[in-house]
Amino acid sequence: MEEVDKILIHTLKQVGTEVSEEVNSVKEFTSELIVEAVVRCIRVIDPGLGSALPTSLPPGMSARFRVGMSLAQACQDIGYKGEIGYQTFLYSNEPEIRSLLMFLVERLPRESAETSDQPTGKSVVLQRAIAAAIKAQLSVPWLPPNCRLPLHGETQSPGGLHSFHVQPLSLPHCTKGPTKKELIDYQRDILPPVTAQPSNHASVVASILEQHTAELSAAQEWDSEWNSQGLVSRLTPQEYRSRKLTRLRKRAEEQLRSASLPSAESAFGGPRSTSDLSELLQAFRGSAPANQVLTKGSHFTHTQKFTFTQEAAAVTSPIPTGRQSEGDVQLRQEEELASLQQQFQQLCTDVDQLTADMKHMGVTNTQVLDELKQRELGNTEEEERMQVKKKTIDLLPDADNNLVKFQAQVEASAKRVLHLASQWEKHRAPLIEEHRTLKEICSNQDLESSRKLSEIKSLHDKIRVSTEEAKKKEEIYKQLVTELENLPQDASRSAYTQRILEIVSNIKKQKEEITKILSDTKELQKEINNLTGKLDRTFAVTDELVFKDAKKDESVRKSYKYLAALHENCNHLIQTIEDTGTILREIRDLEEQIETEHGNKTVANLERILDDYKAIRQENSALAAKVREG
Questions:
Q1: What is the DSSP string of 217-229?
Q2: pLDDT digits (tens, 9 = 90+) for 9-31
Q3: In the chain, how long is the greatest CA-to-CA distance?
Q4: How far apart, in whole angstroms, are the C-alpha atoms of residue 78 and residue 80?
Q5: Average pLDDT for residues 602-622, to the nearest whole number?
Q6: Of residues 558 and 33, which shows the higher confidence score?
Q7: Helix, strand, coil shares of the chain as percentages rounded to 5?
Q8: Over 299-359, what HEC string results?
Q9: What is the pTM of this model?
């Protein structure tokens, strides 16, 4: 049982139970430790069921009984079939606790069972405890702060809530290719950390989650698009992305071109094709005069224009004399400003009017162009009709000869058509055969390409799965390396191997001894059966011989009586020996039961029950006194 207890204690440590190093067996478990171990296991098995169970016993006895009953009910809910109640936790019994812990350890998920066989450190235990707590909190339904009761204090924090406000973040992405030195310097010296980029500190978590979700969804969309369309195009990922970018640019140019066609036609008198985005944007400026087009100049150019305007204004405006007061100058400047504002408003009104006129003229020009195209089509059709009528009128003076010529031409055309049809049939048969052959080859190639595409997709899936497994194994390897470095160096693997071999050899010896005892028991039972049969047969033969002679001789009759008495005494003696063996077996069973009861700590449990009973009576009396006072 020591090895079993060590395995149980090791597994309980994996699920987060704080078992001290001094505890080496289930017999040393206290009630508080039993409750914590059971609750930790239930939380791993069923987080929704274990989230409402406390990991420690409350101080009051009535509350302890309620916790014990709830734990017993939870164990029955997850499938425990043994006898269980509050006494299992409050008044522990070693065999019952061992069977309960073995059941809970067997019911742990496979991941926990696999990780329980691996050495772990404090960091891994802390991470698992955090994951279990998060899983337990996610399984509990969310309640508004005003609807929360005191019992929700452990699962739902009463802290302040913040709205999910997202702000864009700038993250320094690590790339394997060459990176510009300016970008590296900017990211190292100027770019603030992620926690300092949002304006509000409460938006940091929301922004990071949104950034991560966006990058993850973009990567998933690219994987799905590449697996569905990229592989079919038979291009490399760089070529596929460049082609997609080119298509997007062409589509944007077409949209802008279609939106700018009316203004371009009205400005230039016809449709204009733009091959570049700059030329297309140039078309939006219209046909304004060169001096009215708003151009973007440098700061030096604007300064020169402003200086020239000031000089011109200084030349045109009268030079103020010293006799003029500052008030007259200010009044004149205000009048000039008012006149300039009025001119500016008039110019704005004229510009709006010209813009409206340009739009109207553009629509009118489009309508006129459409009408002109329709009339040109009608004129072309009328010209064709006129040509036919003219030729017909030219043929009317010599109608009979012309009809004969027409008939001869029609017959020659019919013969030529038949000849061409026969030639076409000669060429058509091999062409059709070649078409069918090429179609069959094409279908075979399509099937082969589809098969290869499916194989490529399956290989991509296998590569992705293998990559994920490799990452997991790499993480496990790093974790095991760190834990191996933290382990004491005095414990060698040979010692553990020698211990395992000793355990295996002891088990083999015990099996051999059990087999030997069973074989000896079978041989003894066989010998007893042979002797019993031989005795019965000997007595039967002797009884028959003596009984025949007893009818004739009196001394033989007495011998027959002694024989019968001897047989009966022998039977009584055998029965007594069998009863003695039965009694000895019962004595051994009772001694084992006594040892078991001593191991169950019955006396100590009775004393604890009496103490708990007195504590409950005191609590009841205190509650009754409070009720009377109230």
A1: HHHHHHHHHIIII
A2: 888 888 888 888 888 887 888 88
A3: 190
A4: 6
A5: 79
A6: 33
A7: 80, 0, 20
A8: HHHHHHHHHHHHHHHHHHCCCCCCCCCHHHHHHHHHHHHHHHHHHHHHHHHHHHHHHHHHH
A9: 0.34
Lowest model confidence (mean pLDDT) among 4-8, 41-45, 385-389, 457-461: 4-8
So where are the chain's domains? 2-152, 181-234, 330-397, 408-483, 502-599
Any idea what DSSP says for residue 46?
Answer: -
pLDDT tier at 312, thresholds 50, 70, 90: very low
Alpha-carbon distance values, 256 to 188, 263, 264, 279 (Å): 40, 12, 12, 11
The residues, ordered by sequence, that sit 6+ positions from 158 with a Cβ below 8 Å of its Cβ are 145, 148
Structure tokens given for 181: 């030195």
Is residue 35 within 8 Å of 89, Cβ to Cβ? yes
Amino acid letter at 217?
Answer: S
CA 210 from chain center: how many Å?
Answer: 16
The two tokens of residue 499 are 């211990």
Give the pLDDT confidence of 249-308 residue by residue, as tens digits.
Answer: 888 888 887 776 654 444 444 444 444 555 555 554 444 444 444 444 444 444 444 444
* Angle at the Cα of 367 from the Cα atoms of 366 and 373, rounded to 5 degrees: 90
d(CA 1, CA 327): 112
DSSP per-residue letters across 513-572 = HHHHHHHHHHHHHHHHHHHHHHHHHHHHHHHHHHHHHHTT-HHHHHHHHHHHHHHHHHHH
Q: Please check whether residue 116 is in contact with residue 10, taking contact to mean a CB–CB distance below 8 angstroms.
A: yes
- For residues 40 and 12, the answer to whether their CB atoms sit within 8 Å is yes
Cα separation, 365 vs 213, whole angstroms: 52
CA 163/CA 143 separation, integer angstroms: 16
| Sign of the Cα pseudo-torsion (54, 56, 59, 60, in order) | positive
Q: Which residues contact 125 (CB under 8 A, 6 or more apart)?
A: 13, 14, 16
Residues 6+ apart with CB under 8 A from 79: 107
Structure tokens that stand for 116 in this block: 């329980």
pLDDT greater than 80 at residue 622: yes
| Mean pLDDT, residues 530-543 | 84
Residue 218 has pLDDT above 60, yes or no: yes
The reported pLDDT for the residue numbered 150 is: 61
In angstroms, the CA 455 to CA 461 distance is 10
If you write DSSP's letter for every residue of 160-201 in order, what string do you get?
Answer: PP--------------SS---HHHHHIIIIISPPGGGSSSSG
Q: What is the CA radius of gyration of the chain?
A: 53
Tell me: pLDDT of 603 over 80. Answer: no
Q: Which residue type, as a one-letter code, is found at position 336?
A: E
Residue 52 CB-density burial (10 A; 0-12 exposed, 13-18 middle, 19+ buried)? middle
Considering only 314-318, 337-341, 599-603, which range has the smallest mean pLDDT? 314-318
Q: Would the CA dihedral through 492, 493, 496, 501 be positive or negative?
A: negative
